[in-house]
Amino acid sequence: MAQPKTSTPIAVQLYSLRHLELPFEEILGHVSRIGYHGVETLADHGIPASEMNELLDRYNLKVSSTHVGLPALEENLDHFVTFNKAVGNDVLVVPFLPEEMRGAGAAGWQAVGNRLGEMARRCADAGMRLGYHNHSFEMEEFEGQLAIDWLLAASQADNVFWETDLAWIQAGEVDPATMLGNYTGRCPLIHAKDLAPAGENQDQMGLADVGYGVLDWETLLPAAQAAGAEWFIVEHDLPKDPLASIERSFDFLAARLAD
């Protein structure tokens, strides 16, 4: 299937498809058939870079970025740098902080930011960029600022970018369009995710396919592009029908991002 031209390319976070009982190659084939331009990977998917490259070439896909936990990066950065450079990717993202790693108050979140900033300096020395992906817990306020503000300020703008998950921002009762405006130039990757109306889709963590929930995409898409979006990355943490979900989300975005 020819991939639609859009003003900003669209990838899918492969975490959305983790429950499919299919070979990795078939999953990439479905992603390509839908029309996606790229994939956001999870570490190295347990395969060598040569095999990943062969599959990416076969299905005309690029790696937009990859999610790797901070402890794994700290312990084995060389592996992830080597693998991702081999598959044409220079963007690493810390996807989540378990509770024991999260900051306690403003000082705690500053400490997390400092830790990320140090990792980002190591990544930069290796020719890689490092980003941080939010959930809703970073929207808690401490001493007049959100946790995400303390983290990003401590990590420094030239070191750590923000992979902005719009639905989790809104779930944290913060306006995602405002946050995009506050961090213009620091948001190259936008996680496109939607929230179902209150009380719905409880078996899907209260999430919805992009464009089928409550987020204001007519405002958010131009706001994200103005903030410097290089990729829109579809994600649904627990879709009932993963392939149908990512197809509906892609079709919604592609129609609104078309040149």
Task: Outline the structure in words.
The protein has helices at 24-34, 49-58, 70-86, 105-125, 147-155, 166-171, 176-182, 217-226, 242-257; strands at residues 10-13, 38-42, 62-67, 91-94, 129-133, 141-142, 145-146, 160-165, 189-192, 194-195, 207-208, 231-234. The protein is globular. The chain has a single domain (10-257), classed as TIM Barrel, CATH 3.20.20. The chain is built from 9 helices and 12 strands. Helix 7 runs parallel beside helix 8. The chain is α/β, with parallel strands linked by helices.
Secondary-structure arrangement, i.e. CATH architecture: Alpha-Beta Barrel
CATH superfamily, called what?
A: Divalent-metal-dependent TIM barrel enzymes
Characterize the main sheet.
Answer: 8 strands, parallel, barrel
Element order, helices and strands? EHEHEHEHEEEHEHHEEEHEH
**The first-level CATH class name:** Alpha Beta
| Rg computed from alpha carbons, rounded to a whole number of angstroms | 17 Å
The count of domains is 1
**Average pLDDT level:** 95
Approximate shape: globular
CATH topology: TIM Barrel
N-end to C-end Cα span: 18 Å
Number of strands: 12
Beta percentage is 15-25%
The strands making up the biggest β-sheet line up spatially as 1-2-3-4-5-8-9-12
Number of discrete helical segments: 9
Runs with pLDDT <50, length 5+? none
Q: Helical percent range?
A: 40-55%
Structural class: alpha/beta
